[in-house]
């Protein structure tokens, strides 16, 4: 169109063609400008939401640091450094946005900038000088580099927990020269801002702010998550065998589970109720064992989480067995109970509470206390005591023992309560009571003499009913002299309260007249 000599008509056609092209370009440009404006609105809306979200995350992190302490304290300190760095750089970018839109007034009807009119980038031209940067451009690059350096310093640690965040910041704010479409390197700001419409530059700066908010959010999330993960690391756990109870009998099924338990000195309850105290994040139990049998341990931890009180109850059991402070020794041939007396019997099962033990046998009755019985054997030569115990899990165990039944041994006769040869005047014997007693017998028993024979040498034997001399005895006694011996024999002895049951033959007693 520009070559050769053109006719007036051709010139007119060419001019109209150029105007048409310009109009098309103008329409396309308005659509693009509006698109940049909408993009900027999206970024600014997202940035506003991110500011609120980040504030909430930081508050949560501060609460964790106050409640759980430990690594959350360091994480919160790092987060607050990042908060300051991010706010400063975010605010600086906001000043650049205000400079870019200077001269463009917000439309009253829409409350928005006139995007379609923001096709010039004159305000950004002050960032450049020739092919390089002006003082303003150099300042912008310096602020970006400072932001990256400050973030790296705040997030660098031995564990390298924030390496991903640092790498992302370095990538998003890499200010190295950039190759353009022609393969020629442009300065970073020149490539992104020089010659662009003001609305495009504003959108780009809003994207920067979004990147800043994203990095801040990543730090808070990592601080919360990493601190929690570190605290919950498997290196802080121990495999613990938890049996359903702490004592078992031979042949009984052992049941329980293996769990992972974490001992954390930073997990401190606000209160603890139970038989012990908190040491390094764990409850150390200290109590005196209760009675024999299954006993309970229970209590409650109370924690503070997000300002709320969280109760955590616990319950366990243990079994108390008798302390082996004495040996069980028995004479196999001496398992004896005596007929005619109340024999005290103690019954127990090792590891079973006395109130869970039941004994039975002919003549066996409870003495009123768990494990205590009284036995009054009847006829026969043997008595078998059967015992059943109920274990904590409800199972039954049983045993039995056989005792020989023996009669009470024969007692020894007494005069005035004295055995053997008793001396005194005849008058003493006339009023004395004939009695009997058991020597070396452990039971307290009452004995009644119901009859005896009296014999003096050279005199007839007198048979007496009762326990005192009768008139015939006294008549025979009157003919005796000093030195004579009176033999009391064939003494008939009964147990008090035993009816007509007579004890075996009672040994005689002698009275020597003085």
What does this structure look like?
With 514 residues, the chain is of the alpha+beta class. Helix 1 packs antiparallel against helix 2 (71-100), helix 2 runs antiparallel to helix 6 and helix 3 (135-155) runs antiparallel to helix 4 (163-172). Residues 19-28 and 227-234 have low confidence and may be disordered. The protein has helices at residues 8-67, 71-100, 135-155, 163-172, 188-193, 198-231, 426-431, 471-477, and strands at residues 128-129, 132-133, 178-179, 185-186, 237-243, 256-262, 271-273, 276-279, 282-285, 293-305, 308-320, 336-339, 343-346, 357-360, 364-366, 372-375, 382-390, 396-407, 412-415, 421-424, 434-437, 447-456, 462-465, 485-495, 509-513. The strands form 9 sheets. Strands 20-25-24-22-23 form a 5-stranded mixed β-sheet. A 4-stranded mixed β-sheet has the order 12-18-17-14, with no helix packed on it. A 3-stranded antiparallel β-sheet has the order 7-10-11, with helices on one face. It folds into 4 domains: 25-232; 237-320, no CATH class; 336-406, Immunoglobulin-like (Sandwich); 412-513, Immunoglobulin-like (Sandwich). Strand 1 (128-129) and strand 2 form a beta hairpin. Residues 31-225 form the Gliding motility-associated protein GldM N-terminal domain. InterPro entries: GldM_Ig-like-1, GldM_Ig-like-2, Motility-assoc_prot_GldM, Motility-assoc_prot_GldM_C, Motility-assoc_prot_GldM_N.
- The main sheet orders its strands as 20-25-24-22-23
Number of contiguous helices: 8
* Class inferred from helices and paired strands: alpha+beta
- What number is the mean pLDDT? 80
- Helix percent reads 25-40%
Approximately how much beta-strand content do the residues carry?
25-35%
Pfam families: GldM_1st, GldM_2nd, GldM_3rd, GldM_4th
Protein name: Gliding motility protein GldM
InterPro entries: GldM_Ig-like-1, GldM_Ig-like-2, Motility-assoc_prot_GldM, Motility-assoc_prot_GldM_C, Motility-assoc_prot_GldM_N
